[in-house]
Write the structure tokens for this entry.
Amino acid sequence: MNRSRLVGPGRLALTALVAAGLVTGAVLSPSVEGVTANADPASATKLEPVVSAALSCPGPEFSGITGVEDIDVPARVGAATVPDSLIDSTVRITGKGQLLVRSGKDSTDPVTRRGRTTTTDELASGKASDVVATGALAPGLAATQEWAVARPEIRGLATVSCAGPGSDLWLLAGGGAAGRQERLILTNTGANEVTVDLQVLGGKGVVPSPTGSTVVPARGRVALLVDAITGAESSPAVRVRATGGSVRAVMSDIWLDGSIPAGAETTVPTAAPSRRQIIPAAIMAGTGSIRIAVPDQQQAVVSARFIGKDGPVPLPGGGVTRVPGRSTGELALTGLTQGTYAIELTSDVPIVASLWASWRSGTAPGDFIWAPSTTAATGLLGGAFPQAEEAHRRILNVVSTAGPAKVKVTWQAKDEWTTRSVDLDQDTSTSLDLGDAQSVWVQRVSGTGEIRAGVGTIMGRANQLVSVSPLVETAVTSQVGSAHPVS
């Protein structure tokens, strides 16, 4: 483990490289070789290692709202790049590079070795964090923000993947129970301000909102109380649409049931609306529900089933529901044994979906998870986790749909690397206990299956704290154009 201390801007060796602002995702490297075979002699493209990458982390979620008291959480970020052993031999990564995490005006000491996970100190309140990698450390970047607390007013574990922005996002979380509070965190890593329109769907249709839009300043962060947008809606789905740029959006959900802390979670956006949604990883221990939102006017007829190691399994009660257009619905899950599940939803019209599951016994303090649907990966999936004194148990779930696949899973725990090769038939999944993993990487090595993966994290033995974070696809190479004079 490498624990990085946040230092002032005078220590930054990367200042000159990022002075113009963050570039989110992969930046194409210049071509240094001839054109590819069968290419247009005047203009061609080829694959080159990315030379710059950046991810956005929300920062402490319960801070930064004017007139609202902050709730302190010890948020930290873990970041790493994929080890050299997992990069195809045809990809030549040369030279030097570095990885660091910026929080406000401070930055960690740079990491200069691939595969090494760095963990920050606690992050500054009211500020997002940026994970930046350049040169030889840019390919295969992954990062996660995480905190855990068990106090009278808040109790929970929140593990949220750091990622790039989008312009049309759906977040499903929160509820109307007394003591439930949600916050929407919007981050703009670009150089221009972005206008964000917010729309809410609920159980009875579109929810009128007095707070329908906001402006996120350049390289800024805006936190909003979701109640100001959704009112007392018990089943909200929030649509975030950005104009003039793109934003990163996450939603935090905490529940104080009377005087009993019932849990906390931070969730990322779902996959885009589709007739088929896959939730790759949900750790459950009894009861839960799947929240479904229908963006368009037509009613949706939705069927849901589990995808396990032996194939699809029907949900208790059949797993079929109807959701009116421009509305949300809840599909109850009951009587489940403790475990990690993948869920497939199919519909006759496009939907979005996320799963909520409670980890609570009676009226005792508890926790809960939100597990969103995700997009199938076409390349490498990765996750890097901050290290702490108290051990975390990370459980990976990988699912293959629409075809079979052979998948290689590599992870580091206690500074030791482990690799497993997994054969997945069509519409099957597998779980791997990663222990207190520092990082994990998933890649399809053969087959046609669509691969998705997520990590469920558990802390403690009794009254456990839980969270779910989907693995994020990370770029190793990108298409690079090269121009040559025509003779």
